[in-house]
Design a protein that fits this description.
- The protein is an alpha+beta fold and 227 residues long.
- It is built from nine helices and six strands, in the order E-E-H-E-E-H-H-H-E-H-H-H-H-E-H.
- It has a four-stranded antiparallel sheet with strand order 1-6-2-5, sandwiched between helices. A two-stranded antiparallel ribbon has the order 3-4.
- A hairpin with a 5-residue loop joins strand 3 and strand 4.
- The protein is globular, with a radius of gyration of 19 Å.
């Protein structure tokens, strides 16, 4: 099997991804560099709010339960991601623009999503790219829900619409258009034979796929990993 020499695809190029096994990683690289739009998207990616739950066992089966929000802050001044980005734009705007126009984005930033594909074309183009494009249609259930609830989170959309966690859903809820994403692929013929099908349902994953995906999650630290 011939291995393609092209490893990076964006926009309509994604339709040409080969029908081969391999790894893939999605990155945010806007086609049009708009400082405020980029800042808003990066704030959504980097400033994601999470919750911590605590359960304390008391006597006679009584428990103390608490759920509290956790917010990401940076430095001794405890700045939010949006505040950090505002300062970058104010003090290094030319570099900020040049950086996102360059191909250095995939080298110096974390991937949004990373995974393994038994068929890169099917996984990346059909299941991810086309699904995201469909979700931007005004009549799509996800678009209608986000119009009604603009502050909805990925988790709340999944729960309300009974959806599985997917890369396309992550990108759509965060208002990232398909044209503003670039994917890097690593075609290979050395994946285990029992890698199993490409699915968004973790309970369908084989032991080999689970082990390799956990390794990728650890070494690449994607922003929107499904696990």
């Amino acid at each position: 099997m011939d291995i393609t020499t092209q490893t990076q695809y964006q926009g309509s190029q994604i339709a040409r991804i080969p029908h081969q096994q391999g790894l893939y990683a999605w990155y945010y690289k806007p086609g049009v560099v708009d400082e405020q739009a980029i800042s808003k998207t990066l704030s959504s990616l980097l400033g994601t709010k999470i919750e911590i739950s605590t359960s304390i066992q008391m006597r006679y089966g009584v428990r103390l339960i608490s759920t509290s929000p956790l917010n990401l802050v940076c430095g001794v001044q405890q700045q939010t991601a949006s505040k950090v980005l505002d300062e970058v734009i104010a003090n290094a705007n030319k570099f900020f623009v040049d950086f996102f126009k360059s191909n250095a984005v995939q080298i110096f930033t974390r991937p949004i999503y990373i995974g393994i594909a038994k068929n890169l074309h099917k996984r990346v183009y059909r299941q991810h790219y086309l699904s995201l494009t469909e979700m931007w249609d005004d009549n799509h259930p996800v678009s209608r829900h986000l119009t009604a609830y603009p502050q909805a989170t990925v988790d709340s959309v999944m729960q309300r619409l009974s959806l599985s966690h997917t890369f396309a859903l992550e990108a759509r809820v965060r208002q990232i258009a398909a044209r503003d994403l670039v994917v890097n692929i690593f075609p290979t013929t050395t994946l285990p034979q029992n890698i199993g099908p490409d699915s968004d349902e973790p309970n369908q994953d084989t032991a080999a796929r689970q082990a390799l995906e956990r390794l990728l999650q650890l070494v690449a630290d994607p922003i929107c990993g499904r696990r």
